[in-house]
Design brief:
121 residues, Jelly Rolls, mainly beta, eight-stranded mixed sheet, single chain
């Protein structure tokens, strides 16, 4: 068992939209990511996805519903199959919780797709 200090973990990398694996439990992954600008529209066919904003502000744009704006300390769970796009005007630090095999771009293959996540030290 090792504790994770979120501030130190986020300070250990700078790359945007490139999740880092912070831990795993019961087939679920805890991922940390820095975000700025627009991500890709995508959905996850078989997995719900939790977005928790640690710092900054993040908007989850939705094709078929109203966008959800998350402030620091707020989270939302995007149900499986719901097309969404995370967007932020300035850098946000986010924690993601989802099944370990979930690909960051879901059903979309792009230059931002990450298949082998870097483990935090």
């Amino acid at each position: 068992m090792e504790k994770v200090a979120l501030a130190e973990a986020f300070d250990s990398f700078d790359e945007q939209w490139s999740p880092r694996l912070a831990g795993e439990l019961n087939g679920q992954a805890v991922k940390l990511a820095k975000a700025e600008g627009e991500f890709v529209w995508h959905h996850h066919e078989d997995a719900d996805e939790l977005f928790l904003v640690v710092s900054g502000e993040l908007t989850i744009e939705l094709r078929e519903d109203s966008d959800i704006v998350l402030q620091e300390g707020e989270f939302v769970i995007v149900p499986r199959g719901v097309e969404h796009r995370p967007v932020t005007d300035s850098e946000a630090e986010i924690l993601l919780f989802e099944p370990s095999e979930t690909r960051n771009t879901g059903n979309v293959e792009s230059e931002r797709t990450k298949t082998d996540l870097e483990q935090l030290d």
